[in-house]
Amino acid sequence: GSYPMVGAYAKLQWLTTMAWSPDGNSLLVTLFLPTDGQLYPPRTSVQVLDIASKAVRLVVEPRQGYYGYGPMWVSADGRALFKQWHSCVACDGGRSGIDVIDLSTGAIVRTIEGAYSLGTIDGVRHLLSSPGGLLSVRGLEPPRVLMAGRWGPGTAFMAMPPPDGNRLAVMQTPGRQTSIVAVAPDGSMRAAL
Questions:
Q1: Which site among 7, 16, 82, 90 is 20 to 30 Å from 70 CA-CA?
Q2: Which residues pair with 85 in a beta bridge?
Q3: Sheet holding 108-113, edge to edge
Q4: Rounded CA gap, 145 and 136, in Å?
């Protein structure tokens, strides 16, 4: 069912993604607003809802493209927000990437072009597939390259952690002739499987 939106919640319409802060005190949401009554091109942003006070505030608007659907998560230490962006909405062939945002200032600290999330290794480090390689990101720290990309812009990775969490099975650009490599979550060990 639906319910009338009142007060601060009235600002939160056209939501597309959400993520909790690690302490559970706030919820981050992606807001997708029509511009001048037209759905496209939209205005998009990330807003934070304080659960106790019900106050809503703007965190960030994208520098390029749109924040819409796609992964969004908060780092385990609560300092960084990671949000997927897209250069166009409902189009083929557009660009995308992940913005790393400092939650205390709302500043976009870095943009990782062509990256997409492969999930988390241990709840702290997240894996990103990017044209430059398989990356591990943690909070506001610079990404760490676990495995360099072999085919440039056409590079994509698939990674699967095992139940014991000791290593990742990594395949570069599935569908091409490629080997599967075991990589330690910190990138220190590589061995062909």
A1: 7
A2: 97
A3: 72-74, 80-86, 96-102, 108-113
A4: 6
Q: Cα torsion at 122, 125, 130, 133 (round to 10°)? A: -90
Quote the CA–CA distance of 19 and 2 in Å, as a whole number.
21
Do 38 and 54 form a contact (C-beta atoms < 8 A)?
no
| Whole-Å CA distances, 74 to 53, 77, 87, 160, 170 | 20, 8, 22, 21, 24
The CB density around residue 92, as the number of other CB atoms within 10 Å, is 5
**pLDDT (tens digit, 9 = 90+) per residue, 120-140?**
877 788 888 888 888 889 999
Q: What token pair was written down for 78?
A: 């609560």
Residue 80 makes CB contacts below 8 A (sequence gap 6+) with: 74, 100, 101, 102, 103, 109, 139, 140
The tens digit of pLDDT for each residue in 139-174 reads 999 998 888 776 666 667 777 777 777 777 777 765
- Bond before 161 cis per omega within 30 degrees: no
Residue pair 95/40 in contact by the 8 Å Cβ criterion: no
pLDDT level of residue 180 (50, 70, 90 thresholds): confident
> Cβ distance 31 to 14 under 8 Å?
yes
Nearest to 167 by CA among 133, 121, 118: 121
Q: What are phi and psi of 154, to 5 degrees?
A: -85, 5
